[in-house]
């Protein structure tokens, strides 16, 4: 039974709905903070490790590579222990990785901790859109917009604060340094874990036994997923209770679906450009003698505009732009990138705003596609895992290729081609995902 006012399940009382929404927001705050703080600190980390910022471009790509490798496993993990339990474990591992990365000692701590962070975020990246689809019904676009906006907002906070924290010298002593700055980016993780445990404790402790049909009509969290509206109807009777094998078949079939591949490419190209900017904006500015704190604030501006883009996308989808909306962000990204590299002295804030808005709106569009272009809970989970796996493996190449291009030429013109290439591919994918088709729909 659904709530005609909002499409939520009948069991989701207003007070419980607010608790679920706040919990999703708290988890979202942790999805980018722990990784976007690396870019502004890249020069400082490189100096302490005795290497170059270009060589550390791989450090920024490790989470993306981990997302690409681990994302396909998230669907199977959720099938076996329940979606809610899988998210809880991902938050625990995220906390451990954040601490490990900041430990003094061999540089291996930095790299292995970052790998652990990437693996944890891969699971949460895949399953949070799935839980939003399950719990928020016809409000999916709005909640997804807020969720993606918080991803960008948290990234902005982290990017803007890590450098001042690193330079902070309590009582006139030694500066705190980059280790403490990166550790501070994980301060919200314990709060999110407690909130998730309180609002999803039934699902966490019930595990697989609380799951119902493979289409996800009920899940460990106890929510009535049939409330997602018409999108759920085609698969409502497609599998018997506890049919994990049906989930597995959906997980395999999704890899042969053309629409799923276009969604994955679109996801990959927006992530490619986002992480290039998040990692390399500060080094670009520092190469032009911009003070480190100012460079960090400029990166923060980029992320803030990403928040605005994420919030704007659901509203733009209600206008006449709906038919061409997926291709708008890549076009804006091209304009922003050209301005940042070729016209840095001409209204620099405008170029940062265009780049940030494009990345934020494209992320919101990508996540909404994963939720709305699936006819069942199982298909949504499989599509999210597949699209994020392919997307982040593609995106992981972005910061690496950008750094290599800079190291080869010493300038920023050749690296610009890395962004333009991804934007062009995003336009092609954006054209391909238009319409109302769903994955695994033979029609």
From TrEMBL:
Q: Any idea which UniProt keywords this protein has? A: Membrane, Transmembrane, Transmembrane helix
Q: What is the top-level taxon of the source organism? A: Bacteria
Q: Which InterPro entries match?
A: MFS, MFS_Cyanate_Porter, MFS_trans_sf
Reply yes or no: does the keyword Transmembrane apply: yes
Question: Which spans are transmembrane here?
Answer: 20-42, 54-74, 86-103, 109-130, 142-165, 177-198, 259-281, 293-316, 323-343, 349-371, 383-406, 412-433
- Protein's UniProt name: MFS transporter
Organism encoding this protein: Leucobacter iarius
